[in-house]
Amino acid sequence: MNKSNETTHVPVELLARYDKPGPRYTSYPTAPIWSNEVGPNDYEDALRRASVNHDAPLSVYCHIPFCKKRCYYCGCTTFIASKPAAAEPYVDLVCKEIIKTAGLLHPRKKIATLHFGGGTPTFAGTPGLGKIIDTMDEHFKFVQGCEKSIEVDPRVTTPEQLDYLASRGFNRISIGVQDLNPEVQKASGRVQTDEQVMAILNKSRELGFKGINIDLIYGLPLQTVEGFTETLKRVIDLKPDRLAVYSFAFLPDLKANQQKIKKEELPTTNEKYALFSAAIEQFTGAGYRQIGMDHFALPTDELAIAQEDGRLYRNFMGYSVQSAPDMIGLGMSSIGYVDNGFYQNHSKLNSYKEMIADDNFSVFRGMKLSDDDLMRQYVITHLMCNFRMNFSEFHNKFGIKYSDYFANEHDGLTQFVDDKFMEICDVQLTVTPLGRTFVRNIAMTYDAYLSGSEGGKKATFSRTI
Questions:
Q1: Which site from 155, 240, 275, 412 is most exposed, i.e. has the minimal number of CB atoms within 10 Å?
Q2: Most confident stretch, 309-313, 383-387, 453-457
Q3: Quick one: three-class SS letters along the chain?
């Protein structure tokens, strides 16, 4: 394992060589190849089938899409509104979705993880969030030690909201920072002070939140290696439990808000590689363990411990120590995983409203996984989460030898071994500290849909670096 005193240096030339379009593997198979023929009736059937696993825990993701103002770089599914009252009808629809879901899943009730994402979830205010949580409390049961997390914007989240969240059992928080440089903030359309960030951080610690996370973005306008390194050092001084550093994808033709960004102010490709390399070096040098390609955690954090034990789990909500076989998606654009199938709600607010108001689910696409999908999903998930995949554990789960089933794919790992990204022995595949940055590239080896050989559709992905 990558010990806390080891610094990982990633050469820019390797970043350039392996930077190509590829999935992030928050799911496998990936969303672009899901079918639009999958709809609400299929989701209802999946929920009924999943209901028989009475004691199996559930994960729940709830999407709150509202923001007061859209940041220039944002690529999320959001809806701009001036007042929290605008979210009230939406909250009622989410509650209706919860009740319908619970009815089909009955008597299965246990929730092990809950995550509110957005948008700005706290935009709904304590009355809105409280109504959703109360509805879940009435129809489901949060297990002891339930992981409850929420994304917050330091500019709009109040101490009173944090007090309320803590009183309702929330124990994890993710703080959007992106960059601390005022010029970068201005050019990115998200200006917030160090004091606002510190206020959220200190209040969260005072309330006993664990797994406090700070999100950063590299590739924003006016970012330089020198300036971003200063941000990295200042963030490290805050000592959050977890850190995430995401690549900015500039897609002004698809995201109208990004047209406010001046293309000439963006870092060059080589500068962007250097920004990412600096983040990895600074974080690992400060004792953080690399969790996946772009997440980091202190060695004492549950994520790092779970990864070392080989029990880290990952889905659309991010990394978790609470493994649940099924995930329920609530709200517009949310994605569920039920009975080995993916189901996604409409990403248009009006479409979501119309379907839920008519007492239907808002599912508009999805995919039921085959046995081949499940085996590939297993390998990819273990490599992405735990940086290793044990051959005997694969055999015990599927009754098939890895070496027999994945002989062709295994041969394709040679380049990663040569570049010291992987080590292969008779027992397992292991991703090295250097290889963690390139784990998306490694995972692509097992993706049956990238070549189109399995009837997959042509998809457009972000770049791997």
A1: 412
A2: 383-387
A3: CCCCCCCCCCCHHHHHHHCCECCCCCCCCCHHHCECCCCHHHHHHHHHHHCCCCCCCEEEEEEECEECCCCCCCCCCCEECCCHHHHHHHHHHHHHHHHHHHHHHCCCCEEEEEEEEECCHHHHHHHHHHHHHHHHHHHCEEEEEEEEEEEECCCCCCHHHHHHHHHCCCCEEEEEEECCCHHHHHHHCCCCCHHHHHHHHHHHHHCCCCCCEEEEEECCCCCCHHHHHHHHHHHHHCCCCEEEEEECCCCCCCCHHHHHCCHHHCCCHHHHHHHHHHHHHHHHHCCCEEECCCEEECCCCHHHHHHHHCCCEEECCEEECCCCCEEEEECCCCEEECCCEEEEECCCHHHHHHHHHCCCCCEEEEEECCHHHHHHHHHHHHHHHHCEEEHHHHHHHHCCCHHHHCHHHHHCCHHHHHCCCEEECCCEEEECCHHHHHHHHHHHCCCCCCCCCCCCCCCCCCECC
